[in-house]
Amino acid sequence: MAHLLRSSKRAAIATGAAIVASAAFSFCLPKAIRAQESSPAITPATNPAISFRRPLRVGNIRLQNNREYVRAHYFFTFDFPAEAVEPLEKIVFEQIEGADYPRYRGDRSYALTGVDQSQPAPINVDNNRDQRTVTVEFDPPIEPGNPVTVALRARNPREGIYVYRLTAFPVDAIEGQYAGVEQLTFRRPIRRDRFGRWH
Questions:
Q1: Distance between CA atoms of residues 8 and 1, nearest Å
Q2: Which residues contact 98 (CB under 8 A, 6 or more apart)?
Q3: What does the chain look like in DSSP terms, one character per residue?
Q4: 25, 92, 169, 183: which has the fewest Cβ within 10 Å?
């Protein structure tokens, strides 16, 4: 019986020593390592609030030709300040008003960047006619401080006013940021009737 008590006492002492040693080792770990073990890494999936420090804004819009049913490029130039910090991954053009919808050509659309707008910016264009959106994704992303012009190729819709909401996305962002609401106006061609009058 005494032998069993001595064995139990030695086991308890050994267990206590192991617990103390483990606690001391944990205390000696650097704070950064302890924090890393207790907190999950921040990723775009866990932190969707990635945003530009200073958002993009439309600086200029130009239509190559505003007559209905003709082919033309729509030029959107964005001011992208260096203070934005985050690179630009994509821009979504959402038509929120207009009776018709242009027939976009992604393979004929392009983008330019740089202060003098002379550097080609490779893009991928996704046209969703059902949702009336055109998504332009930059590959590689555009670095802040570089103005960018997107030239969308399309067949113009019928005459009328067409309003677009523009949304810009930083790299890995789940939600985009408002970049402006702009409108394009298309007109019916002026023609002469048989009496020489313009219509």
A1: 11
A2: 157, 160, 161, 162, 163
A3: -HHHHHHHHHHHHHHHHHHHHHHHHHHHS-HHHHHHHHSPPP-TTT------SS--EEEEEEES--BTTSEEEEEEEEE--GGG-SPEEEEEEEEEE-SS--EEEEEEEEEEETTTT-EE--EEEEEETTTTEEEEEEEEEEPTT--EEEEEEEE--SSEEEEEEEEEEETT-SS-EEEEEEEEEEBPPP-B-TTS-B-
A4: 25
Other Cβ atoms less than 10 A from the Cβ of 16: the count is: 10
Say which residue the tokens 């073990």 belong to.
37
Task: Point out the residues of the chain with pLDDT beneath 50.
Answer: 1-46, 196-199
Q: Quote the pLDDT of residue 194.
A: 57
Q: What is the pTM of this model?
A: 0.72
